[in-house]
Amino acid sequence: MSHTVVDLPGLPPGVEVRRSARRRRTVTAYREGGRTIVVVPQRMARADIGPYVVELMGRLEARERRARATDDELAERARLLSGRHLEGRAEPTSVRWVSNQHRRWGSCTPADGTIRLSDRLVGMPEHVIDYVLLHELAHLLVPGHGPKFEEWMARYPRLVEARAFLAGVDHALGHGLGDAGAGEPGAAAPQDLAADGTAAGTLF
Q1: Integer Cα distance of 25 and 173 in angstroms
Q2: Fewer C-beta neighbours within 10 Å, C or N terminus of the chain?
């Protein structure tokens, strides 16, 4: 195991701190299964961890607020994608972000025309979010993943790229590679902070 969990009193609810032997001077925060994971260098003093937790949580939340589209904006995006790639045939009754989908990126109920996207997608590249949204829109036309479904999806020009991106994220999630940098668990734009307090960049 490349990390150990730090038992630190006074942490906000849902926050877990991990020491990583792979990190030398940066700390990072990301979402994982409804929790906030903060990864710090193995040798960071316990007294120094608390302030970084507060700082990184603030940065992460601010970034998510900027990145997360409203449900209305998501519905408008769905309308545009349907018109561009599905001849306008997919007409969902509602499209919204949800926070209770931890094992899938999106879901669709053809019977009532509703589409839900996991908020784990927040912060991912736009073409990846569009791919997931288009995938669910296509299910309003074709329930399964057979040839007809793939015919519709083949109209999306960044299909292979988006699928490869999500496959990489799923691999990281399944193999515990969360503190390795690119492909952090939660798949959503970790906020890095250098040990001197300066921003060290984000994944996407």
Answers
A1: 24
A2: N
